[in-house]
Write a structure and sequence with these properties.
heterodimer; A: alpha+beta; six-stranded mixed β-sheet; 8 helices; 26% strand; B: alpha+beta; 2 domains; eleven-stranded mixed β-sheet; two-stranded antiparallel ribbon; 17 strands; 17% strand; elongated
Chain lengths: 245, 410
């Protein structure tokens, strides 16, 4: 009996691994070609503008082929977004990366007034961390917000200034490994937040109230680090709290 | 008197009581066993690696990379180039990096090619560093440091010479017998796959393969050890490497930049994140196992109830007699309850001790085949909770026969 139960346990264990591994969304995440964190040079932005127009016509194929130059394709799953949360000491950093469709409902440049309004509304939510996150256990104040919504918007508004900050900052904290390509057109929206908390160790959980504003995000894969602890979970509008334990 | 009466009445129906007892024992054995192994496996996995911020390997599944690099389960999909390792590990955010090269074995135990950083920075459990029971880290090309179990099982001491085998087959005929290794260190037991590993330098791994081609030794080509020292033994590729960072908050940024590394498809994972993804996948399986063990228990409890219920009919006279000598109906009710509890407690003791014995005897097999360290100590908070739930369930299961007896007595 006992040998059997053990054997069954491990057989099932192995079996389920074999069955489930190929579907692991993390595999897609692995090939996930992130748009990197705006530390590209400014000029690149302008170069990109020119490109936009070419791309504009065939943005249907966009998902599949505009990343070729990097040799790896970005997994692009509508309804699915990724978030990372890192806490060290009193510093907290949150990064959200989502296909534009989840945020604004389309993936091309906003072409009419309605679409521009939608993008601007989304941008104002993304730039207001209070509307995105609810911290439990301690108080956290936002130090820097940077939202890259350029994929769906022609103008860059005031973003240019942010970029300068970002630029210096990123070099300070170090993006070590070779990544120096110019910015490319993509259909993702990325937001990065830096907070300073009263007591980082007391931060027990974060509720993602962003589900209220972006119902199109059905699954939010959240990886987190808090000191020595690491974890991962899949949030949805039904379970929207990441608990650090 | 009360208790004695219950025991005596159980003893007078040995046959059916024994069968019920066995059914209960088996079900408690399964319940405790599933719960215990589930917890211990998790614990064992989470204790294996600590303090490592990122693990980098060839692009594959997150969990696959974790399993082969840390737990030595499964096979690596691909190697990564030494140049990539050097470039990434020299990044300014990287505090230390431990390269790992797998592929050879010794009598079924895996050989790991690595650097001294392994002994300096690798830690397990609650950030416990590796410690030497005897000897010191490898220095020479043909030095080897043994995990505790390897030394213990194969009876090796410092200074012994051992021959590594090519590949991971337990009985391999392609031995690197022209280049034996000398044991220079033995590690303290860790309760992790480190115990089942042999550690050599990356140069050592290169050296034993130098006159090999396509997995077989080239005949007639013999390079002496002196000649070897002249050759620069630079590894061309490694299996994976572990990274410790200066600032944890930058972990995700470094991970992203490694995943975007353009020269080679690489995958960086956070071990803790990969483990929780593994548990997420396992959750369905775990719950199924739990459900099955609970159903087995339920079946046993129903059997207990049925056994007691059928006994009531034949105990009609006994009950009447007890009434005549002055026992109130409630006493009869409690008597039946007590009998049920006695059976239940006995089977908990029996099931628990059988499980303990079984675990104690298969532990080594589990460690050897699955790298799982399961302790035989089955007493934990959750097992105690489970057992008290069993007792409560027993009381409920015995309500029907007890009430039946109570009705007869009234």
């Amino acid at each position: 009996m006992k040998a059997n139960s053990l054997k069954t346990f491990f057989t099932l264990l192995t079996f389920s691994l074999i069955v489930i591994l190929p579907w692991d969304p993390a595999i897609q995440a692995a090939s996930h070609e992130h748009h990197d964190e705006h530390h590209d040079d400014h000029d690149d932005h302008h170069d990109e503008h020119d490109d936009h127009h070419d791309e504009h016509d065939d943005h249907h194929d966009e998902h599949s082929d505009h990343h070729d130059e990097h040799g790896s394709q970005k997994a692009h799953l509508h309804g699915y977004a990724e978030m990372t949360v890192a806490i060290e000491g009193n510093k907290l950093e949150i990064n959200l990366d989502s296909p534009s469709a989840n945020i604004v409902g389309f993936e091309h440049k906003a072409s009419n007034d309605d679409q521009i309004k939608t993008v601007e509304a989304a941008e104002s939510v993304l730039k207001t961390p209070n509307k995105m996150f609810l911290f439990n256990g301690t108080n956290c104040i936002v130090i820097r917000t940077s939202v890259d919504i350029s994929a769906v918007l022609e103008e860059h508004h005031d973003e240019h200034d942010d970029h300068h900050d970002e630029h210096s900052d990123h070099h300070g904290e170090g993006e070590d490994v070779g990544h120096k390509n110019g910015e490319e057109i993509h259909s993702d929206i990325e937001a990065n937040y830096k907070f300073s908390c009263d007591d980082g160790s007391k931060l027990i959980s974060i509720s993602m109230i962003l589900f209220n504003h972006f119902p199109a995000i059905e699954k939010l894969k959240t990886d987190w680090i808090k000191g020595n602890k690491q974890g991962s979970l899949e949030l949805s509008s039904d379970s929207r709290t990441v608990i650090f334990r | 008197m009360f208790f004695k009466l219950a025991i005596e009445s159980l003893l007078s129906r040995k046959g059916s009581v024994l069968m019920t007892l066995m059914a209960m024992t088996v079900s408690i054995f399964v319940l405790l066993g599933v719960e215990h192994i589930r917890q211990e496996a998790k614990e064992s996995f989470s204790n294996t690696v600590s303090g490592v911020d990122l693990i980098v390997g060839a692009r594959t599944g997150t969990i696959n990379l974790l399993l082969y690099s840390v737990f030595r389960v499964g096979a690596p999909t691909n190697n990564i180039s030494w140049a990539s390792f050097q470039e990434i590990s020299s990044g300014k955010n990287v505090k230390w990096a431990i390269p790992i090269s797998l592929g050879d074995s010794h009598k079924g135990y895996r050989v790991i090619g690595t650097t001294e950083n392994y002994f300096k920075h690798f830690s397990y459990g609650n950030k416990t560093p590796l410690r030497f029971l005897d000897g010191k880290p490898f220095k020479d090309i043909f030095d080897v440091v043994l995990g505790f179990e390897v030394a213990n099982k194969l009876n090796y001491k410092l200074g012994d010479e051992i021959v590594l085998a090519h590949g991971i087959a337990r009985t391999s005929f392609s031995l690197h017998d022209d280049r034996p290794f000398t044991v220079v260190g033995i590690l303290e037991p860790t309760g992790t796959p480190v115990d089942q590993s042999l550690h050599v330098s990356l140069e050592g791994i290169e050296a034993i393969h130098i006159d090999w081609e396509q997995g077989v030794k080239i005949k007639g080509l013999n390079i002496t050890n002196d000649q070897l020292k002249q050759i620069e033994l630079k590894p061309k590729s490694i299996t994976a490497f572990m990274v410790g960072l200066n600032s944890r908050i930058a972990t995700f940024r470094v991970q992203r930049s490694i995943n975007q590394y353009t020269k080679e498809p690489l995958l960086a994972i956070l071990p803790g994140v990969a483990l929780s993804q593994l548990w997420q996948m396992m959750a369905v399986l775990e719950n199924t196992l739990r459900l099955v063990s609970v159903l087995v228990l339920l079946a046993a409890l129903l059997g207990l109830s049925a056994m007691l219920l059928s006994s009531i009919r034949e105990r009609d006279r006994e009950i009447q007699l007890l009434r005549v000598i002055g026992a109130p109906p409630f006493f009869i009710f409690m008597l039946i309850q007590l009998e049920a509890l006695v059976i239940s407690i006995l089977s908990i003791i029996l099931g628990g001790s059988i499980l303990f014995c079984c675990l104690a005897s298969v532990r080594e097999l589990l460690t050897y085949h699955f790298g799982l360290h399961i302790s035989a100590n089955i007493i934990s908070n959750s097992s105690l909770v489970f057992l008290s739930l069993v007792l409560i369930a027993t009381i409920f299961a015995a309500v029907i026969p007890s009430f039946n007896a109570y009705k007869i007595a009234r």
